């Protein structure tokens, strides 16, 4: 809901700072915690998901064909 690109950048940088401060694992092989930004109208995106390049190329393992947009109200 940011009203400008500057505000979006400020919020994103703050999110990265919080993530860096709160990270408690370094996934050298897999299992890395990864913040994701998802449009509120994009449905069927898992709240917590497996993040790794192989298998599935990040989100691919979660069957992205099942993601869909709901009609905004």
Summarize the SSE layout with pairings.
Blueprint (H helix, E strand, L loop, with lengths): L4 H18 L19 E2 L24 E2 L4
Antiparallel strand pairs: 1-2
Description:
By secondary structure, the chain is mostly helical. It contains one helix and two strands. It has a two-stranded antiparallel sheet with strand order 1-2. The radius of gyration is 15 Å and the shape is flat. It starts with a helix and ends with a strand.
Order of helices and strands: HEE
Report, as a whole number of angstroms, the end-to-end distance: 16 Å
Q: What kind of sheet is the major sheet?
A: 2 strands, antiparallel
Count of alpha and pi helical runs:
1
Instruction: Bin the helical content.
Output: 10-25%
User: What is the topology, as strand order, of the major beta sheet?
Assistant: 1-2
Low-confidence stretches: none
Shape label = flat
Which structural category fits the helices and strands? mainly alpha
Rg for CA atoms: 15 Å
Topology, number of strands? 2
Instruction: Report the sheet-strand fraction.
Output: 5-15%
Rounded average pLDDT = 79
């Amino acid at each position: 809901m940011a009203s400008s690109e500057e505000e979006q950048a400020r919020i994103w940088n703050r999110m990265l700072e919080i993530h860096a401060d709160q990270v408690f694992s370094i996934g050298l092989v897999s299992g890395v915690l990864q913040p994701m930004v998802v449009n509120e109208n994009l449905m069927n995106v898992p709240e917590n998901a497996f993040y790794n390049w192989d298998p599935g190329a990040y989100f691919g393992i979660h069957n992205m064909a099942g993601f869909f947009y709901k009609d905004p109200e």
